[in-house]
Design brief:
Strand content: 5-15%
GO molecular function, one term: beta-phosphoglucomutase activity
Bound molecules: 6-O-phosphono-alpha-D-glucopyranose, magnesium ion
Family: Belongs to the HAD-like hydrolase superfamily. CbbY/CbbZ/Gph/YieH family.
Organism: Cellulophaga tyrosinoxydans
Strand order of the largest sheet: 3-2-1-4-5-6
Keywords: Magnesium, Metal-binding
Number of helices: 9
Radius of gyration: 17 Å
Cofactor: Mg(2+)
Order of helices and strands: EHHHHHEHEHEHEEH
Length: 220
């Protein structure tokens, strides 16, 4: 194919931010401090390791290497309990509509996520079969806004970066897509995602006429 579509996972396909929040909050509370929804905003698109560093800064806690590693594992074990209960009802509105549109046109689809739990989550919500390539936290060295994750995804799809579209909910993800020379589409608040080429609050705002034009422009 000449064109490809790349989806972020957390905040684009499913709203896992609420589970990340609960797991980080549980850890913060155990360590004796509060963790707010507002602070959780800073964690979107950010690697697990960097999240823990920020959390400990918030709590004013200096950890030994052993403590740090233990808390990383503890947070993830807790997070996985929430993930385990997920099903297709947690897919964000109209995500399947867009995936089906692309499938019908034989346009390849990749995942480009910072999460190391991407595959189990896609399995849980029954969307794994849509993806021709999965690039996640297990495959990348450099976190968004570095374009690495999206460039590997384009490569796996066999599509040149300038002919890829990226759906993202995090500022760092939009920056990564722009640096990769891809068409960035922000999903969420346009004031926050102002660097995106296009912006929608969610997939219900994306109609087939927009998608058809986008595909036609890219294929030129
Ligand atoms: C996504 C989320 C972040 C999360 C990161 C790593 O980018 O938006 O909040 O920290 O993935 O997720 P993981 O599942 O590997 O802990
Ligand atoms: Mg995201």
């Amino acid at each position: 194919s000449t064109i490809g579509f790349i989806f972020d996972l957390d905040g684009v396909i499913v709203d896992t931010a609420k589970y990340h929040y609960l797991a980080w909050k549980n850890l913060a509370n155990e360590l004796g401090f509060e963790f707010t929804h507002e602070q959780n905003e800073l964690f979107k698109g950010v690697s697990r390791k960097r999240c823990l560093e920020i959390l400990l800064e918030i709590g004013g806690i200096k950890a030994t290497k052993e403590q740090f590693d233990t808390w990383m594992i503890e947070k993830n074990v807790d997070y996985l309990q929430y993930i385990d209960k997920m099903d297709a009802s947690e897919i964000l509105p109209d995500v399947p509509k867009v995936l089906d549109f692309l499938k019908a046109k034989n346009i390849p689809i990749a995942l480009g996520s910072a999460s190391k739990n991407a595959k189990p989550i896609l399995e849980k919500v029954n969307l794994l079969s849509y993806f021709d390539a999965i690039v996640d936290g297990n495959n990348v060295a450099k976190a968004k806004p570095d374009p690495e994750v999206f460039l590997i995804a384009a490569d796996k799809l066999g599509v040149s970066p300038s002919r890829c579209v990226v759906f993202e909910d995090a500022v760092a993800g939009i920056q990564a897509a722009n640096t990769a020379n891809m068409v960035s589409i922000g999903i969420g608040d346009s004031n926050v995602l102002s660097e995106a080429k296009y912006n929608f609050n969610n997939f219900t705002e994306i109609d087939s006429s927009f998608l058809n034009k986008l595909v036609a422009n890219l294929a030129e």
